[in-house]
Amino acid sequence: MNIPNVAIFFGIVDCDLLSIISKGKGIFIDVGSNVGIYSLAASQTFDKVFAFEPSEVTFNLLNQNISLNESGNITIMRV
After folding, report:
1. What is the dihedral of CA 21, 27, 28, 32, to 10 degrees?
2. Which single residue of 25, 49, 57, 59 could bond 74 by disulfide (Cβ 3.0 to 4.6 Å)?
3. What is this structure's pTM?
């Protein structure tokens, strides 16, 4: 999956963040990860992704999204 295509699909317009994600290496931390759009994009280029989401309902959706996409390098935390 091409990261700019992910951005277009979800209507993301944060080009600076997408530029950082596309160069990925090491660890990516997503605070307030919502359903994991940035986390999933970052999981393609970063070695490890940590996604933090405080809302219980949204955290459950995030968990389902990560599972559906079989992203083994994302660790999610509800905090």
Report:
1. 180
2. 49
3. 0.79
Distance CA 48, CA 41 (A): 12
In angstroms, the CA 53 to CA 38 distance is 13
Reply yes or no on whether the pLDDT at 36 is more than 60. Answer: yes
The pair of three-digit structure tokens given for residue 4, joined into one six-digit string: 């700019």
**How many CB atoms lie under 10 A from the CB of residue 20?**
15
What pLDDT does residue 20 have?
A: 78
**What pLDDT, on the 0 to 100 scale, is given for residue 22?**
81
Element (H, E) at 51: strand 48-52
